[in-house]
Fold this sequence. Notes:
There is one protein chain. This protein is of the alpha+beta class. Helices cover 15% and strands 42% of the residues. The chain has helices spanning 15-23, 27-37, 44-51, 175-183, 238-245, 275-278; strands at 55-61, 67-73, 79-83, 86-89, 108-115, 120-132, 135-146, 153-159, 168-170, 186-193, 205-212, 219-222, 225-231, 248-255, 260-271, 283-297, 303-309. The strands form 3 sheets. Strands 9, 10, 11, 12, 13, 14, 15 and 16 form an 8-stranded antiparallel β-sheet that branches. Strands 2-1-5-6-7-4-3 form a 7-stranded antiparallel β-sheet, covered by helices on one side.
Amino acid sequence: MELPVWPHAGLPFHSGELVAQERAGKRERMATAGGRVIRGEMPEQHRDFFAQLPFLLVGAVDAVGLPWASVLAGAPGFAHSPDSTHLRIDALPLPGDPLEHALEHGARIGLLGIELPTRRRNRMNGIVVALDQGGFTVEVEQSFGNCPRYIQLREATAAVPGTPMPASHGTTLDDEAAAWLRAADTLFIATSHAASAEEGEHTGGVDVSHRGGKPGFIRVDDGGTLTFPDFNGNNFFNTVGNLLANPRAGLVVPDLAEGALLHVGGHAEVIWDGAELAAFAGAERLVRLHVERVVRRPSVLPTRWQLREYSPGLAATGAWPAV
């Protein structure tokens, strides 16, 4: 998709995000709010927040240009901030993780900290500036909070030490993967956009975002396609804007009760209108992913989580009709 080059005037958004904001009727509002909310350094409360997490989401791009989302975990404090413009993470992707070889020095990266017992979440996007056998350091480019809507409240129930089982790989969704997706109430999506000399410093990067819904909100259309809703959110349009500029995405769909991860990568499209959208209560857009790669990783998370309460924000949303 050919996107116009927008005059940024210091806004922290690239052309894909601005086009999405314009189409949704939110661009003027975000022109005022964006610069206040998105910062070039982490405030103290964000630094403290990351330091208390037992896991965080990470998004990066692999050697063939496909974004992937994954989970890094450790004892609270494994992510810590030596100063307001850096975050050190004492963990690396495990063998079999789609991001195993993606976190190189100079790589753009998206991070999402999410606290399931409180529904808090904060995001940070930046560049890997140091990498060693114990972990890596990210220099902040963008730091901002997100609202708690659509996050399901969960409590940690058990720590399960041990060696993860080998990952399995495929190019389509088999029956097990389809059942996994249909039962899910949470996914995370990684997207990216290329640097642009015309647009300047706020282009080129990776985002990883949360999406939540009632079980069944991920519809498996067939072995090669899945679709899910995009509900009303913070109006930044990081994910949708990236997809307009670069229609490739990687999902990670956790089974938090079993400590397992399902990664699905491929080409995505945004559906803005039509009967299919109208049939899903609460959805403002749909995202359809055409599957290219599937990675299943059993027993990979060190903590198990029990669902306590669905997000109150889901009361205004529906379920897929039987078709």
